[in-house]
Amino acid sequence: MCRWIAYSGTPVALSQILFQPEHSLIDQSLHSRKGVETTNGDGFGVGWYTQDTATPAVVRDVSPAWNNRNLEEIAHHVRSGLFFAHIRASTGTAVQQTNCHPFRKGRWMWMHNGMIREFHRLRRDLALAVEPALYPDIEGSTDSELMFFLALTFGLTEDPPGAVARMAGLVEKTGHAHDVRYPLQMTVAVADGERTWAFRYSSEGRSRSLYFSTHVDALRTLHPDAAFLRSVSDETRLVVSEPLGSLSGAWNEVPENSYGVIQPGRDALHDFRPALQGDSSRN
């Protein structure tokens, strides 16, 4: 599987999050504690927003994150208040740049940990459901990118939770039609430059790990000597595949079958369930 981080808050150098924590994403690329694989060396990607551009910058490479000098160079010189970072462990598709996360379409970014089981059998049926005008923009061969374009097809830009629910519903319906008992395993992050949505769901109810950071004001009370906490705003949040360190009280597990929204003002946590196109029920 993979490991990922979504950061939202006070603009910081990417290196503060990717390299400096005791169990940073770079450390996780070699020593994952909660992933299916200990090593995640099949490529990496970072994507970030700035105030100067409407679309995010995305840099991806097939080399392992732990020894890529370009990643280190970028991380020490780029500052952002909203960025994604992802390290990949392939579930069967090729190790190539176009299969590395995050994926981008316009102002939207998407990254995923998990799988569509028996994807080689389901791929054709799922691909046929992508809006024809969007299909030429699919560059790689992963289930993750196809999930993104299905969500775009189902209205991601207007209703992210509903679109992801309809994507998940189609994957499960298609999987069951091919006698796949548990078709979908996912933790997903998606952002539009202002808000970030994070989803945790699996067909069998045993989803991959996902955590969100405690409110910064509460952490300052718990850890008054932590210098990093004094330099970031109260609205700074991280969502991570596994905790970046052992600071007590810092991390909370995202509940099974739920999604959260990180946004200006009050964040929100909601139940999540798959839906089918035309289903009027809400998550």
From TrEMBL:
Residues 2-243 form the Glutamine amidotransferase type-2 domain. Keywords: Glutamine amidotransferase. It comes from the Bacteria. It holds the Pfam family GATase_4. PANTHER family: GLUTAMINE AMIDOTRANSFERASE DUG3-RELATED. This is Class II glutamine amidotransferase. It comes from Streptomyces echinoruber. The lineage of its organism: Bacteria, Bacillati, Actinomycetota, Actinomycetes, Kitasatosporales.
